[in-house]
Every structure is written in structure tokens, then in C-alpha cells.
Amino acid sequence: MIRSAIDYGRSFATGLVDARLRALMRAHLGKPSTAVVYDGDQALRSAVGYLLRAQQQGTDAGLGSYHLIQGWGASYPETTGYAIPSLLAAAVHLNWEEPAQAATRATDWLLSIQRPDGGWQGGRVGEERPSIVFNTAQVIRGMLAMHAHTSEQRYLESAARAGRWIVSVQDADGAWRRSNFLGVARVYDTYVDAPLMQLAIAIGDQALKQAALRNLGWVLAQRKETGWFMNADNTIRHNDRPITHTIAYTLDGLIECSALTGDDRYREAALPAARKLAELFHAHGRLNGRYDENWNGSEHAIMTGCAQLAIVWSRLDHDTLMREARDRMLSMLAAIQARSSVGPAMVKGAMPGSFPLWGRYEKFAFPNWGTKYFVDALLCQKRIAP
């Protein structure tokens, strides 16, 4: 608590003496509109520009994130991995070669740091963390996308090694604990199941699919009657009110797995929470960062979760409520992105961690993954699957 207060005090003090930071903080005082008219391709190009800077500013080919006080951070293998499909899809849509080149550099860098066990480390480069199931699965997404883009077997072989390691550390009940963040099982590993299934199709290894199905069985047992999922947060302390970021991972993974298997149970399991969050957004014009099992919200909005929910709603846009929620959310996110233009040049096009930017999640920072999901949400609205 004391450390957090000191951190907030230092950040606000720095912001008040820097004209660009002061202007950005002022821009975050007002509630963003959900009815802003915006140019989707311009917003997309600007967001991709931030991801390119996130790579260019580092000492390797991974993607870091910009913090308003601390500057650029070290690369994050996990988020670099799942940014690759986004960069490739945006490159095609915008007829812009640079994002595809950046994706290739990022993939080759990830190949160079793959662990002997087949996994990729948790956290950021330099933290020397062990291989983590969730993070590794997100790099598999990147490897599969690059293999589809180039047909080079080395990417598929890397993904296969990683997938088989994930299967080897799965617990008997289908969950992953000992090789996952904090050593606990979490339902957002549905976002692991989807790339495992995609890999199973690509290399013809049914053990990968069976591991994903075992985990999905465990996940379905965690769902409450309200549609809320137990064990959905990325902390232990706040697991009773998970963040929208990990809630959305859970829902998106279920929807992806439903499409890959043809089993409607997974999509149906995601629907109640997706619909409830759409209703809350329509009712209040915003979402909180966390929700308990009765859908009571707390904390400031988390932009990553908001962008991810726009993707979820896109995948369910045959439902008018969710289609309208998606469009309103993207309008709001575009309005928040536009506010970043008054800040330092490095954050142009980026999505802040929270709104306002001093919210608890990634405060005063612009995590690359939030901008990646904004890119994906814009593409999904155009029926382009990253």
C-alpha cells in the first residue's frame, strides 16, 4: 500500500511538471464518448505504428511497452508472440509491408530464445522466469501464423515442440498448475486450448487436442449459474473479482474452441457472461475493470479487457445487442486512442492500460498487448481474423 502510494505520488508529480504529460492527464479527466465517428483504417494504422515503435525502441526484436515515467520496458515474449498474427493481418489489409517485416523479425527472435524444454519464459526478458504454459501458448499462435505466412517448417517445428511440452506438464484433472503463473489453475487457459487445437490440426497430433478438451472440461465445471467463472483472475488476492482482461481471455478461448471443434457447448458457456457485460456497457456507457460473481463492478476500466470484449462481441455479432456493444466500444476506444495524441510522441496511437491512465491496471503505461487487441478488434469488425 505504501509503495503504491509513493509510486502514484511520483507519477503525478512528474506529470505535473511535464507539459505533454500534463496535457495527457487532463485529457483523461473527461468520460469518453461511445458515439464518436472515426476512421477505422486510420485508427488501425496508428495503433500498428505504436507496435512497430515498441519493437524499434528495444535492444532485441521483441515488443516492449512504454511507461510515461520509466520509458520503454524490456520485451515480453508472450505478447510479442500473439502480436505476430495481428501484424501480419494488418499488413495485408493496409497493404503495408513494414508490419509483416516486423512480424518476421519478432518470430525469428522468439525462435532464438525458445527454452530447451520447448517453452518460453514468463514475464519480460531479463527476469529469468521459468517456462510458463500460458505464455508459451501465445507464442505458438505467432509461430502458426508465421508458418501460414511463409510455409517455413522451422516455425511449425518450434510450435510442435512447445505444444508437446504443454501437454507433458498438464495435471490429471485437465488444468495446468505447476508450470503456470503463480502455480494455480485458471479458466483463462481456454486461450491455451485454442492454439493447441490449431496446432493439432496443423501437425496431426491428437494428443494436443485431447489435452485441450480435458482442460475445457475442467473450465466448464468452474462456471456459475450467473455465467461468471471461478478462478478467472491473474492474481490470488483478487480472484473473487477478476479483471475483464482475463474474463475476456476465457470467453474468447471458449468461442475459438467451439469453432474449431464444432461443439456448441463451449460457445454457449461463453454467451451469458458476454451478454451480461454487453448489457452493463449499454446501461452505463463504460465497464469497470473487475467484476464479482454477481456482476458488481469495481476499479477503473481496463482498456485491454474492453478491446478483447469488442472481439468477443464481434464473434457473436449475429446478436444485435452484442453487435451494437462492439460498435459502441470501438467508438469509445478510438476516442481514447485519439487522446493519446496530446501526450509524448511515443504513445501516439497507443491504448493506455486503464482509463483514466492512473487506474490500477498498468497505471501511467501503454502496454503493447492492449494496443494489439485494439488492432484485432478493428480487424474483427471488418470480418478479418487476425
Quick take:
The protein has 386 residues and is mostly helical. The protein has helices at 2-17, 19-27, 40-56, 77-94, 97-112, 133-150, 153-168, 190-203, 206-220, 244-261, 264-284, 303-315, 320-339, 368-381; strands at 66-67, 71-72, 290-291, 297-298, 301-302, 354-355, 365-366.
Q: Please trace the helix and strand order, writing H or E for each element.
A: HHHEEHHHHHHHHEEEHHEEH
Strand content: under 5%
Find the CATH topology.
Answer: Glycosyltransferase
**Mind describing the biggest β-sheet?**
3 strands, antiparallel
Q: How far is it from the N-terminal to the C-terminal residue, by CA?
A: 39 Å
Strand order of the largest sheet: 2-1-7
Quote the average pLDDT. 95
Please report the total strand number as a whole number: 7
The rounded Rg comes to 19 Å
CATH class value: Mainly Alpha
Question: From the 3D coordinates, which CATH architecture would you assign?
Answer: Alpha/alpha barrel
The stretches of 5 or more residues where confidence is low (pLDDT under 50) are: none
Q: Kindly state the percentage of residues in helix.
A: 55-70%
> How many domains would you count in the coordinates?
1
Task: Name the shape in a single word.
Answer: globular
Structural class: mainly alpha
Helical segment count: 14
